[in-house]
Specification:
44% of the residues lie in helices and 20% in strands. By secondary structure, the protein is an alpha/beta fold. The protein has 2 domains: 9-125, STAS domain (Transcription Regulator spoIIAA, 2-Layer Sandwich); 134-175.
Length: 176
């Protein structure tokens, strides 16, 4: 996908609940929409699906994830997964998981599977809006980097610095 164009996102009904597929790159532009969709699904729609209350993020056709998208995955994992009850799972072949998640060591903590659940519907596009409130996007990027910093590891300080700078910029914007 050329720069500046959103990555195609698809939503499908599957045997375990819903499946969101990222085709191409997952950037901050897509992460906010994917995060909001999965949050809404797990918080509101899941009880209506008679026990099928899992959201699967299919990354098998994903080429790259930026740090904001990775932080969104950590946030969804922390909010919705408990021992014995996984409601947010990432689906991708092992090599894709290592490539996309391994750099931040998230392949060790996020709930994953190597196969894709059986889909029961045709894909429906999930469309990224061309107009996004900069403050809302900034808050999303800030929260995602805070989540990554909490994980520790070799990049934790860098993620914390990014979050600190964003927080200062957002606070300055509110004051002006």
């Amino acid at each position: 996908m050329p720069d500046g164009h959103p990555t195609p996102l698809e939503v499908l009904t599957c045997e375990t609940g819903c499946l969101v597929r990222v085709i191409g790159r997952g950037t901050m532009r897509e992460s906010r929409l994917v995060h909001q969709f999965i949050e809404r699904y797990l918080d509101d729609a899941a009880p209506k699906h008679q026990g099928s209350d899992c959201a699967t993020l299919d990354l098998s056709l994903c080429e790259r994830l930026d740090s904001t998208f990775l932080g969104a995955l950590v946030d969804l994992h922390k909010r919705h997964n408990q021992p014995g009850k996984l409601r947010f799972i990432i689906s991708a072949p092992t090599q894709v998981q290592r490539s996309l998640l391994g750099v931040a060591r998230l392949d060790r903590i996020l709930a994953t599977r190597t196969d894709t659940p059986t889909c029961l519907s045709e894909p429906t596009p999930l469309t990224v809006s061309d107009t996004v409130d900069p403050g809302e996007l900034g808050a999303h990027v800030l929260e995602c980097h805070r989540r990554l910093a909490e994980q520790g590891g070799p990049s934790a300080e860098a993620f914390a610095r990014v979050a600190d700078v964003l927080e200062q910029e957002l606070n300055a914007r509110v004051r002006s």
